[in-house]
């Protein structure tokens, strides 16, 4: 009996030593993506005019990011029906400085064509805002931008406080009179209130990343119809 126990002890000891000698697996890399209530991920991109813009350039200001695609019918309506142009006007009347930035992660056409058409689109609306080119989609994936439009609001402390839909009027029935979640969030920040809700499921076209994008979880709504 003692010899059996001794043999078992030797076996278990050997197995323990073998297991201990095995290299420990490396921990999975941390997923660095934008999270509500956390500092907004830093980025640096060039605008349609070739100027370099870094998020850190706007420290102490409210920053709004719109994922943008001039060929997306939802973006066309958001701008063409005056929703975003009116939003820009309303933001100018707020009691603090607000920076509005369009980010273009579209990659289903040559970059020079996207740059040209996007620049022309904003010029037609006399929109004096930077359109940052993210052709490789790095910043889009960093923020997990899913649709065009997809909006992100960053407060004066550099914290992401809202992300999601432009408004609840995805059919553009109210046109420029639609209340936007962006303006609500900005007003809540200025009033010193908590931004609630901090997330509303985004709707629109899938962002056309270079590697292709699945539509899983994208809230398209019904087709917004022709731009009249």
Write up this protein.
- The protein has 228 residues and is α/β, with parallel strands linked by helices.
- It has one domain (33-206): Glutaredoxin (3-Layer(aba) Sandwich).
- It is 30% helix and 17% strand.
- The protein is built from six helices and ten strands; from the N terminus they run αβββααβαβαβββαββ.
- The protein has helices at residues 2-21, 73-80, 83-92, 111-124, 138-143, 181-190; strands at 44-47, 52-54, 62-67, 98-104, 131-133, 147-148, 150-154, 160-164, 199-200, 205-206.
- It has an eight-stranded mixed sheet with strand order 2-1-5-4-3-7-8-9, with helices on one face. The protein has a two-stranded antiparallel ribbon with strand order 6-10.
- β7 (150-154) and β8 form a beta hairpin.
- The chain is globular.
- The protein starts with a helix and ends in a 22-residue tail after the last strand.
- Mean pLDDT is 86; it is low at 15-21, 25-30 and 213-222.
């Amino acid at each position: 009996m003692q010899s059996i126990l001794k043999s078992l002890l030797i076996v278990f000891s050997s197995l323990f030593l073998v297991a201990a000698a095995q290299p420990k697996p490396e921990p999975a890399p941390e997923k660095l993506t934008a999270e509500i209530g956390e500092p907004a991920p830093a980025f640096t991109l060039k605008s349609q005019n070739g100027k370099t813009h870094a998020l850190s350039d706007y420290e102490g200001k409210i920053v709004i990011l719109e994922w943008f695609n001039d060929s997306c019918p939802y973006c066309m309506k958001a701008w063409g029906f005056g929703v975003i142009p009116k939003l820009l006007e309303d933001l100018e009347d707020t009691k603090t400085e607000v920076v509005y930035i369009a980010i273009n992660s579209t990659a289903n056409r040559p970059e020079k064509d996207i740059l040209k058409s996007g620049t022309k689109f904003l010029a037609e609306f006399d929109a004096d805002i930077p359109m940052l080119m993210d052709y490789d989609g790095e910043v889009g994936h960093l923020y997990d931008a899913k649709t065009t439009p997809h909006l992100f609001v960053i407060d004066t402390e550099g914290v992401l406080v809202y992300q999601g839909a432009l408004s609840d009027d995805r059919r553009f029935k109210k046109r420029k009179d639609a209340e936007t979640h962006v303006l609500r969030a900005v007003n809540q920040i200025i009033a010193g209130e908590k931004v609630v809700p901090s997330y509303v499921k985004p709707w629109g076209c899938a962002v056309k990343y270079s590697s292709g994008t699945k539509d899983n979880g994208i809230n398209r709504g019904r087709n917004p119809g022709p731009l009249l």
